[in-house]
Specification:
Shape: globular
Largest sheet: 5 strands, mixed
Strand content: 5-15%
Strand order of the largest sheet: 3-4-2-1-5
Number of helices: 17
């Protein structure tokens, strides 16, 4: 009997591929030394059922993964190679020591932001930007960098990671906070290139499409959530954080507390919405949060609310590129089309500047409908001339 080949005792190779959503996916044998490093990568997720790690689809993340797995057998799927075929060697990436050192900087950053009463969303966003920044520049410390280094870093993000203009602006703001408010160092943001943001108009759902979305949502809680989002023009973070006490049935108002910019405001409560809420309350008996999660002490997560909308839009046959925020855009546009003054819409939505609200004049049928199309004028002129 032949003795087994030594290769039969080798663990299976690690495999790097793309999951259905386009994220970098990894299957790898358990390794106690590699596991903490995988957990340290920003944006990583673990699918226990499939036993697969997934990571943001960024060139720097792929480079870091391959570096972590360099002592293992690794199979890289052709799809990954094709997606990152422009991958070139970039700045040194942090390994375990640098990741651990970064946490001290992150703690200082988070503390300063909390002292200044920044929102949890902004704190999470800034810490993510700074953690990625420290990982990429390692082993150098951020205090050692100068404006030229920061420009090189931004160009690296643009050229190798293809980040959007909005994300680059966010990175600059996060780094400015780190240098000015944490390190108390000058930071001239004016010397850094700020990519121009694309001015995209919001996608608007028609009244019919809104009804289709609501009618295809059979779950009472989910339908009430979507109806509330539309009828009050709420952001997803606002609707999931609503409290039962925020509903003023007598005055037909909804009190939106601690919204974007740490501002409170009142918005509309329609008769239909009030009736729906009463049915919802009799069925679910919410106590604190109007839309509690699985743990009733906590509110429904924003991600769950977004998923509810996507499923409803898919079931309703909506082919437009929409998100749950499209309900807020549609609400504002429909108010404008019904004749509500732009200043009132600004107050209802909680916009600090009227410039933000004015975007709805670009997508309103009422405004655009007043413009006579030259093609119609030509046809009318032709018909008039023929009749003569």
């Amino acid at each position: 009997m032949e003795s087994p080949s030594p290769t039969n005792h080798l663990p299976p190779p690690s495999r790097v591929f793309l999951d259905p959503t386009g994220r970098i996916a990894l299957t790898t044998p358990y390794n106690s030394s590699v596991l903490p490093l995988l957990k340290a990568i920003e944006g990583r997720k673990w699918n226990a059922k499939e036993r697969v790690w997934t990571f943001p689809a960024e060139a720097v993340v792929l480079e870091e993964l391959l570096k972590l797995l360099q002592d293992n057998r690794v199979e890289v799927d052709p799809g990954v190679t094709k997606k990152f075929r422009t991958l070139q060697p970039g700045p040194a990436l942090a390994l375990k020591a640098e990741v651990l050192n970064a946490e001290q900087e992150i703690r200082e950053l988070r503390t300063e932001m909390r002292l200044r009463n920044y929102s949890p969303r902004t704190i999470k966003s800034y810490t993510s930007c700074v953690r990625s920044f420290i990982r990429i520049i390692a082993p150098r410390h951020p205090r050692e960098l100068r404006d030229g280094d920061l420009r090189a870093y931004l160009l690296f993000l643009i050229d190798h990671q293809g980040l959007s203009a909005s994300t680059i602006h966010q990175v600059i703001n996060a780094l400015r906070f780190l240098f000015v408010d944490v390190y108390h160092r000058p930071f001239d943001a004016g010397t850094l290139p700020r990519p121009k943001k694309s001015k995209k108009l919001p996608v608007i759902l028609s009244h019919e499409e809104i009804l289709r979305i609501l009618n295809t949502t059979e779950n009472v809680k989910h339908r009430t959530l979507l109806m509330m989002t539309y009828s009050a023009g709420l952001r997803v973070g606002e609707v999931v954080r609503l409290q039962v006490k925020d509903i003023d049935g007598e005055r037909k108002l909804i009190h939106v507390q601690d919204a974007k910019g740490k501002k409170d405001r009142y918005t509309l409560l329609s008769d239909t919405m009030l009736s729906t809420l009463r049915d919802y309350y009799r069925r679910y008996r919410p106590e604190g949060h109007l839309f509690p999660g699985a743990d009733r002490r906590k509110h429904l997560s924003e991600r769950t609310a977004q998923h509810v909308f996507y499923e409803a839009a898919r079931a309703a046959g909506i082919t437009k590129s929409v998100s749950i925020h499209s309900l807020r855009h549609s609400f504002a546009t429909h108010l404008l089309e019904s004749g509500v003054d732009l200043r009132y819409i600004q107050e209802i939505l909680g916009h600090s500047s009227s410039k933000t609200t004015e975007i709805y004049t670009h997508v309103s049928r009422k405004v655009l409908g007043k413009i006579s199309n030259p093609l119609d004028q030509i046809i009318t002129y032709k018909e008039t001339k023929r009749n003569k």
